[in-house]
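To: structure desk
From: M.T.
Subject: fold request, one chain
Message: Could you run this one when you get a chance? Sequence is below, nothing fancy, just the single chain.
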Amino acid sequence: MKAFDAQQPEPARLQTAPPAPILAELVPEKGPVLRRPVRRWVALPLFLFVATWLSTLAAGGGGQAVAVASERGLMAGLLAGLVEGAKFAVPLMIILMCHEMGHFLQARRYGVYASFPFFIPMPISPLGTLGAVIAMEPRIGDRKALFDIGITGPLAGLIPTLLFCVVGLHWSEYAVPAPQGWVFGDPLLFQWLTEWVLGPRPPGHEVFVHPMAFAAWAGLLVTSLNLIPIGQLDGGHILYALLRRRAYPVATILLVAALLLVVLNFALYGPWLLMLLLLIALGPKHPPTRDDNARLGPVRILLGWLALTFILIGFTPQPIISMG
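Reply: Done. Structure tokens follow.
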């Protein structure tokens, strides 16, 4: 898949930060009772939210702004860049906002502490952002609360991702890529949707995607990365809710296997080493919930396993491929 601006994407940032400290207060006849920390920080999340909007606008329209400004002046360039950048920034930010608000609203529903989302601007990356993080205290809620909070973010973000993917692909086309350059790897789901919308791919052609489709591609990558069943990623929450304490050895085996795969195939998968080292630093173990014995029910169990297997069709091990 050839992106509208073929630059290397940065690995998506984790969507769940390390847990906030548990607070307790002494209630007569009940003993220590957990209570939620007060969300005092509003200015910082708001500032980062605005900054991420600006950085994604710049990532999507910076090239257009420079080209037009060199011909018609600075103001014309800024306007052209704003219009072009919005085609990418608006769908990408909607995807990220839906993902984070899925977590936040479910946490509010269950009375589990969750911070406001912290969006992370990254002006020098082709996406303009490293995603967003949200601090949550899973030990306040029970097993069912952990499952619902963990899975709602990816599901809420996946809905606009698929919508923007289909619409954006209608504005995309097949073309022969330049002999020297870079293309972005396609996950299976993106390949299926491309053939459904554009038809079979001619030999030697790549998809030159519309900015909206590229935002959806980024949404698939972010969703898949967050569903990795390790530690306190969204997939780690889901796996712990499904297996409880048996999730720890499973997550450890997966982390070691991924590390060996990357090290032994460093030329292909080397860029993932940094993320794996971060996961090792954070640890594959998930903290217990207030009640690990709460019942999930067959529907949640089936949905949980389906969500974890989404990685197989939504993740691409080589997000960027050299054509040289």
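Reply (cont.): The chain has eleven helices and nine strands. Let me know if you need anything else for the meeting.
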